[in-house]
Amino acid sequence: MVNNISIWVLALIAFLVFDFVVVAYIFFKKLKKDVYDSKELQYIKSHWIRIIDMFHGNPKAAVLDADKLLDYALGKKGFKGTLGEKLKKAGGRFSDINSVWSAHKLRNKVAHELEDINLVDAKAALASFKKALNDLGAKL
């Protein structure tokens, strides 16, 4: 009888330890998605510097690239789909999701129309993209 109780206690302890390990693994795996590794962070920062340098000569291209960079950053966080789908899924991570959507809509307009871009709108879009990247942990 005592041996049966000991076996059950040991089995229960083993089960609890196994559960703890599984939960800890899932927690740390999810936590890792919330932080960029140094290589990803360096890519985002260097790409952002290129975008800012590009703005003065080609604001359209700067807006297009900033949108692509946000898409990349969200992808590295584990979000899948188009940028619009990623924004819907990640909306709560942004301090101002409406400005991010406005910047993305400007990108769509720029990509599909031949008109020149309004510099004030382009600057506002870049500011929104930068804020969104910082909200994701890019530290720009």
In short:
The protein has two domains: 1-33; 38-135, no CATH class. The chain has six helices and no strands. The chain has helices spanning 2-33, 38-55, 59-76, 83-90, 97-112, 119-135.
Written overview of the protein:
With 140 residues, the chain is mainly alpha-helical. The chain folds into two domains: 1-33; 38-135, no CATH class. It contains six helices and no strands. It has helices at residues 2-33, 38-55, 59-76, 83-90, 97-112, 119-135. The chain is elongated, with a radius of gyration of 23 Å. The mean pLDDT is 87.
* First-residue to last-residue Cα separation: 65 Å
Overall residue-averaged pLDDT value: 87
What is the count of structural domains?
2
Structure summary, number of beta strands: 0
Total helices: the number is 6
Helix content: over 70%
Structural class: mainly alpha
Strand content: under 5%
The coarse silhouette is elongated
Which SSEs are present, and which pair or pack?
Elements lengths: L1 H32 L4 H18 L3 H18 L6 H8 L6 H16 L6 H17 L5
